[in-house]
Design a protein that fits this description.
There is one protein chain. With 411 residues, this protein is an alpha+beta fold. It has 15 helices and 12 strands. It has helices at residues 24-32, 37-49, 62-82, 103-107, 115-129, 196-199, 205-231, 246-253, 294-300, 303-307, 338-348, 354-357, 371-378, 383-393, 405-409; strands at 52-54, 57-58, 133-138, 147-149, 160-164, 172-174, 177-179, 186-193, 236-239, 257-258, 264-265, 273-280. The strands form 4 sheets. It has a 4-stranded antiparallel β-sheet with strand order 3-8-12-9, with helices on both faces. Strand 1 and strand 2 (57-58) form a beta hairpin. Helix 2 runs parallel beside helix 11, helix 3 runs parallel beside helix 7 and helix 5 (115-129) runs antiparallel to helix 7. The radius of gyration is 21 Å and the shape is globular. The N and C termini lie far apart (48 Å). Bound molecules: iron/sulfur cluster (SF4) (2 copies). One iron/sulfur cluster binds at residues 259-261, 265, 297-298, 301-304, 358-361.
Length: 411
């Protein structure tokens, strides 16, 4: 059976660069007329106070819930201190656009410029800092936000600043906006793993901690990679969720495919990862999109759509547009209703992640990671049988944060 593979299907006549003000984090606060973060944090604390490890599960030892709650803050610390998820943080805080080190020019020394050698070095660095997958995509203006929103998650009028692609050489900011030069022709994109055992208990305090740790790790990776580029005399802009859409860049770099749950699905860790990226003019070897058979498998799987407590993940075919302004019209994909998802987060006191926990590609282990995954990459012939088998066996993938599981995760 021939597989149909199109990495990114975009209707250029309809597609417009996405405004960061339309991420669900910003849009939901506007809809509510108040920030969603405070009630979310309150609900999360209530879970711990009432000895709940998840919205539906009370545990015997309150101390366990309190410890799990503290893990969230602990694992988030590096992220908060440095990059703060990156949203609205383009050229701010730890993500400030630092100039390239120009000691090469001062000393009259040639900068290293061998793309293959530099690519190997930065892959080593990213892996050493915690990345499980690193690739390089070409500069593509379509994925760069049209504007950033400075008053992140705040209700009322968005305080926006345009991101302009109108200069060569050095990125800068002035009254007109943020100027991001297309001479930053390479985008290094890295995936860091989230703790699969913690995610398997989603939605829960443990899963929230895993998400926090993912962001802290991603901050470490992208700040280190950017500094590596600058130290060799090249421009570099580090970014987490801000500046541009990470997922299509990761697809272009060959890290994975976009799944039904709207996330990047990597062959190694499925959607159980977080992404970060660095724009640079350093010469590097670019990757290409890879056909891993994942989207074809998503057609018959649908486990994430069935598991989604907010029914935000579509169960039908890909469409050209989604439910609201949080979706990019003009891209053929499964458009997740991100506002509906975020409303559930607020009600549950958890950033959920059930759609990550149930995905057969998550975790990089279990029956699915062997022969099934290899077959999926070659043919669609066995997809329905494997989806059926996974429905029978995959249920074990998601666990309760019970008093039995807790010592297993954290002895
Ligand atoms: S995080 Fe939870 S609510 Fe949001 S899409 Fe995934 S399963 Fe649904
Ligand atoms: S759970 Fe199934 S349908 Fe959803 S992203 Fe994973 S493989 Fe695709």
């Amino acid at each position: 059976v021939a597989k149909i593979f199109k990495a990114l299907t975009v209707d250029e006549a309809r597609y417009q660069r996405f405004s960061e003000s339309n991420t669900a984090f910003n849009a939901l606060s506007r809809d509510r007329g108040s920030g969603w973060q405070m009630p979310f944090a309150r609900r999360q604390r209530d879970l711990a106070i009432h000895a709940k490890a998840s919205p539906k599960e009370t545990i015997v030892q309150r101390e366990d819930a309190l410890i799990q709650y503290a893990l969230i803050d602990a694992m988030d610390r590096i992220n908060v201190m440095t990059a703060n998820w990156g949203s609205g943080k383009c050229n701010r805080g730890g993500l400030k656009w630092e100039p390239a080190d120009d000691w090469f020019a001062e000393e009259g020394v040639e900068r290293p410029a061998d793309a293959a050698r530099l690519t190997r070095a930065l892959r080593f660095l990213a892996r050493d800092c915690g990345a499980v997958s690193t690739g390089v995509a070409p500069f593509d203006p379509r994925w760069i936000y049209s504007e950033t929103q400075r008053n992140h998650c705040q209700p009322g009028e968005p305080d926006t600043q345009p991101i302009l692609i109108d200069s060569d050489g050095i990125p800068f900011e002035d009254e007109a906006g943020l100027h991001l030069p297309s001479t930053l022709r390479n985008v290094i994109v890295c995936a860091v793993p989230m703790h699969a055992d913690l995610i398997s208990t989603a939605p829960s305090l443990y899963a929230e901690a895993a998400t926090s740790q993912g962001y802290s790790l991603a901050a470490c990776v992208c700040l280190s990679v950017a500094e590596f580029c600058r130290s060799l005399g090249y421009q570099a802009i580090a970014s987490l969720n801000g500046t541009a859409l990470s997922i299509p860049i990761a697809v272009q770099a060959g890290l994975g495919e976009v799944g039904r749950n709207g996330m990047l699905i990597t062959p190694e860790y499925g959607p159980c990862i977080r992404l970060c990226k660095v724009y640079t003019d350093m010469p590097l070897e670019q990757g290409t999109p890879r056909d891993l058979g994942i989207q074809a498998y998503c057609q018959v799987c649908g486990a994430c759509a069935r598991a989604c407590p907010s029914h935000a993940i579509p169960s039908g075919e890909p469409t050209w547009e989604g439910a609201n302004e949080c979706n990019s019209a003009g891209v053929l994909k499964w458009h997740v209703n991100a506002k509906q998802c975020l409303r559930y987060w607020v009600a549950a006191g958890s950033s959920c992640s059930a759609c990550i926990a149930v995905c057969p590609f998550s975790g990089g282990k279990g029956w699915f990671s062997g022969l099934p995954q290899r077959l999926i990459a070659r043919t669609t012939r066995w997809n329905r049988i494997m989806a059926w088998l996974d429905r029978r066996w995959g249920v074990k993938r998601r666990r309760q944060t019970s008093d039995q599981v807790t010592p297993e995760i954290m002895p």
